[in-house]
Amino acid sequence: MTEKNIGIMGGTFDPPHMGHLVMAEYVREALSLDEIWFIPVGKIPHKDSSHTASAKDRLAMVRLAVADNPYFTVNSIEADVPEYSYTCETLEKLKQQFPEYCFTFIVGADSLDYMERWKEPERIFRACTVAAVHRMGYSNEETGRKKAELEKRYHAVISIISVPCIQISSTEIRERISVGLSVRYLVPETVLQYMDRHLLYRKNFTEIKR
């Protein structure tokens, strides 16, 4: 098996949007990664399922979103299981399946503040390196301090990546659709068409504005 450097983008992707794609592309180039694997979660914790898309729909939308980028692919390791998935377990499974690959887990810089509260974070840092993407409201000093703390505590390897500030959230997209506002330019056109065709996130089932 050929050694590869793989970036992992996890999340609900409910729905996937342009901010996800820009983040992934900047990290890929900054770290010279061979591929980015998008891994949608299956069961979404702490959310009202009536306001979210199914794992099947979210997986389909991510596949559409990344289809035109040869460096992007989708892995259904979490979407294929009915129970909650933990990051440490997913990364360890990937390491078992692809022992010669080096994995980089991509997170927002704000996630560094609470990664030690994730399930068994030491297992995460053993299985991969971490790329933390700067977010608005987090200074270089704050991020640097947290990076140093985690590296010392867990022997982690963490890179800080700067990307353009694109303030798009999946929550905002769902809310705009629910009240009949346009989401053009917030999501890829193929994703917009899928949401429209499958009546996603709509309260009154009116056509999504373009």
Explain what you see:
This protein has 210 residues and is α/β, with parallel strands linked by helices. It has a single domain, classed as Rossmann fold (3-Layer(aba) Sandwich). Helices cover 36% and strands 15% of the residues. It contains 7 helices and 6 strands, in the order E-H-E-H-E-H-E-H-E-H-E-H-H.
If strands are numbered along the chain, what order do they take across the biggest sheet?
A: 3-2-1-4-5-6
Name the helix and strand elements from N-terminus to C-terminus, one letter apiece.
EHEHEHEHEHEHH
Tell me, what is the CATH class?
Alpha Beta
Number of domains: 1
CATH hierarchy: architecture: 3-Layer(aba) Sandwich
Distance between termini? 45 Å
Model regions low in confidence, pLDDT < 50 over at least 5 residues: none
Could you describe the largest sheet, including whether it forms a barrel? 6 strands, parallel
* CATH homology-level superfamily: HUPs
Enzyme class: transferase
Function: Catalyzes the reversible adenylation of nicotinate mononucleotide (NaMN) to nicotinic acid adenine dinucleotide (NaAD).
EC number: 2.7.7.18
Family: Belongs to the NadD family.
Helix and strand topology:
Elements (H helix, E strand, L loop, with lengths): L4 E7 L6 H13 L4 E6 L14 H12 L5 E3 L12 H11 L4 E7 L12 H7 L1 E5 L6 H15 L3 E4 L8 H9 L10 H9 L13
Parallel strand pairs: 1-2, 1-4, 2-3, 4-5, 5-6
